[in-house]
Amino acid sequence: MLSRDRACFLLREQANTCSAFGSPLYGDLLERAAREVESGGRLFFELIAPYDAPSGRAGALALRLMAAVHRLVLTGQAPTLAPHYPSVGGSQPNAWPAFERVSADQRDLLVPLIALPCQTNEVGRAAALAFGFFEIASATGLPLRLLELGASAGLNLRWDQYRYGGGGASWGHQGSPVDLVGLWKEAPPALTEIRVVERSGCDPRPVDPTTAEGRLSLEASIWADQTERFARLRGALDVVLRVPASLDQESADTWLPRQLAGARPGMASV
């Protein structure tokens, strides 16, 4: 079980990270939760204390707390907090009183949700990954076979279905629901047409993005005031319905050797 000092550290560490990476809402709420624990309060300490981990960031415990509360907002079970959460159209300031009240009133719902693993799938990363895909396709002249380790819901396996731009270049589907235009600061040096012939991945806890539960799990993990990330995720979830990919529940150390065991002529495995 967590010590009070450890709980305070984890909440405050994540508060600082959220503030630094563009989520003032989560930065403020987690800092206030840390102060509540620090001053001897029982609410947030007792919510997260059962889920200690021996080292590191304790299994993203602070983010699991925030995802649990966000899930209640997304499903309409926290109507007093919704006006403060931009992910559902809220814009009111000072979310703390409502956040604290919801956390207290909905404790029985939150406890099992906090136990869920933190599972995110940031499609914005595809803007960086694209540089490597272009380089490989240009160098080999072959279609790509994509193998993703730690694939989560496999959203980045559909990277070629998104729209990219920046640095004087543009690439991808004009009407894509995932708009990554502006994430390129310079044009890829090997911009080329690409064909993907296989999409597969593995994850210890893969998320099925075709199910309501899978979609909700991913949405809840987005920081609620980062509306651009939220829009990208929802667009990627729409792409999933028409572009299949194979996801296995397996560790990379057994999955990848099997995938690379035989020759696959006519394609480049990435």
Feature tags:
3-stranded mixed beta sheet; elongated; 270 residues; 4-stranded parallel beta sheet; alpha/beta
What's the helix count? Answer: 10
Mean pLDDT figure? 94
Biggest β-sheet strands, sense, barrel: 4 strands, parallel
Order of strands, widest sheet = 6-5-1-7
| Percentage of residues in strands | 5-15%
**Global Rg:** 20 Å
Query: Globular, elongated, flat, extended or rod-shaped: what is the shape?
Result: elongated
- What is the H/E string? HHHHHHHEEEEEHHEHE
Helical content (DSSP H or I, runs of 4+): 40-55%
Cα distance spanning the termini: 42 Å
Number of strands: 7
By helix and strand content, what is the structural category?
alpha/beta
Low-confidence stretches: none
Summarize the topology:
Layout: H1 4-20, H2 24-38, H3 43-48, H4 61-74, H5 96-105, H6 107-114, H7 126-140, E1 144-149, E2 163-166, E3 169-172, E4 179-181, E5 196-203, H8 212-221, H9 227-240, E6 246-249, H10 252-259, E7 268-269
Parallel strand pairs: 1-5, 1-7, 2-4, 5-6
Antiparallel strand pairs: 2-3
Helix pairs in contact: 1-2, 4-6, 4-8
